[in-house]
Amino acid sequence: MRALPWGILYLAASPALVPPCPTDLPGFQDWHERTTRAFFASNLEGEILVEIATTLRRCSPQLEAVPAARKCMSNFSSFFEAVTRDKLVSGHQMGASIPDEQYFSEMPYPEMLELPAELKDQELLRWLDENDDASITSALSYIDGINATIPDPRLQWIAFIYTSQHLPTPDGTRSLGRFFVYVPRKDFDQYIQFGLQQDPAGKPPNGVSVVAVQKTAAGTGEVLKIPRARLKDFWRKRDGGRIEIGTRLDETGIAENCYTCHKQATLPITPDPLEFDEARFGEKLNLVNARMASHGALDLDGFTRSAYGPPMGPRTSPLRTPEFLAACSAGRVAPERLARLGEAMQCATCHDGHVRGELNYPSGIHAQPQGGTLVSFYVVNHKKMPLGATDLSEPERHALVECLNAEYYRGFGDQPGILQAWMLEEDCWREAMR
What we know:
Layout: H1 25-40, H2 47-58, H3 60-64, H4 67-72, H5 74-88, H6 100-105, H7 122-130, H8 133-147, E1 158-163, E2 177-184, E3 188-196, E4 207-216, E5 223-239, E6 242-247, H9 248-252, H10 278-294, E7 299-300, H11 322-329, H12 338-344, H13 374-381, H14 394-410, H15 418-424, H16 426-432
Parallel strand pairs: 5-7
Antiparallel strand pairs: 1-2, 2-3, 3-4, 4-5, 5-6
Helix pairs in contact: 2-5, 7-8, 11-14, 13-14
């Protein structure tokens, strides 16, 4: 087992070997610094998160008794509490501060996270299971029939099919096909996706996902300055010729921390261009993506975004020197293009928590099921980011991903990365230790 600082290895030790908690300011300062540096020397995920968080929980009475230490460890403490809640707190598999049951049952608008009754129609569900050209055409015509009953065009539904480039359904079938339905309402919008079977020899997918965006305050109807979002995974059950809709959590006992990936709750849809029918569905796709973008940065109910750290790619950074850019780009970028690389790193120009959600932990390192990360997919594969940057070559895009991760997580020379500096709070400790 790797050597870690005080208090980290106690999980593997007998109770008699559990080290005592610090009880004074110097003790906490020493442990905080060494543990933070050990964390950033690790892979930043998995076991070490739980080990540090468990020690923090065990030593919380002693920390509460030293107010200056509690203040200077506030970022550190809130981070480890937030990112391990799904692992250490019973009934919080989604990682939210409210229990899973409450997350799904107590909503401003009770129907916000429920599938519309029209989408539980047995004939529609069978068409989606059959998933051939005729069946999908029938399913799309079914949505057209619903729209014929909605006089206000702003509230009419939008439906299309596409193949995801990087996100299989979370049901073990690894299906990339999607039947997408956008359901606008006066008080909230719903973005609904049914997984579509791609392998005729495989099992039909169970997954159905909903992202709901609350636009108005319940009771008053006042438009929210910052819309709020919730997410829910449903589960199709096939029994005796019927297809019933349950929830993934109830049927499998599994849920994940939504905020790990959904820094912006409504992620833009980026179909596989080789599979997407642009002529048939391109306009609908653009309308839906524009509607998603119009919400701005969304507050994800139950999650404190700031606990996951500052945003990746600030407008300016003391780390972003020519020497750093040359090192992190590892020869992929010509010297005369390094300044352009630095300009392209300003993700927080948009991802600032106002225009778009911040790209904080674990953005850039959290692997997707198909490999890669969301940052690498949008920068390298989709070439959607940085917004409007059409002059970056393929090697420069790869370098951009590497440099963003280096600046945020690893630092350069004796300077810590952005997330580590935020967690260390060195200015606070200098003041406290005077």
